């Protein structure tokens, strides 16, 4: 799904051409947000409604947002690589964006399978000494894929009635890390009729640190 401000991009990945979109905020961006879509083999694309909700949320927060279709999706070449190549490709998008918009912090966000990709990329970036500003994970794929450990200020949102990734699996993954999760009552995996909660919670928590501790506000980002 494209906005009026969407820019089509094509990147050269290890498996071939990757198609993507960049969405700009109304004013000079305060940061970069990368959005990862759900599982390619089950209909996941960068136009998935949760991925689009994340894009619109970050644009409203003043971020320039980049999405790509993973391997084998849309006009992106290659075949599904079980998250390994997809993490490499998201890393390539990260490199492209920090070169195109130098000096801006980068946030990693994703939905379902995309949370696995972003948790792995987040771990890579931290190990390289260039950690992400923050992670936002919706419908985290705990129990489906080997999710990496995440920072304490990660924003996690999950549906109470998610039957694709049960809430219990997410709690089991988070318990050793002592990281909280926001549970949306009545929400299924795809947040049918509940998408507004994603935007509301991310915006409400964006200027808060771990355990809801307020951090200094960026005056330039005030609505």
From TrEMBL:
InterPro entries, alphabetized: AB_hydrolase_fold, Hydrolase_4
Any single Pfam family the record assigns to this protein: Hydrolase_4
SUPFAM superfamilies: alpha/beta-Hydrolases
Chain ranges of the Serine aminopeptidase S33 domain: 53-145
Highest taxon of the lineage: Bacteria
PANTHER family on file: AB HYDROLASE-1 DOMAIN-CONTAINING PROTEIN, ALPHA/BETA-HYDROLASES SUPERFAMILY PROTEIN
Protein name, per record: Serine aminopeptidase S33 domain-containing protein
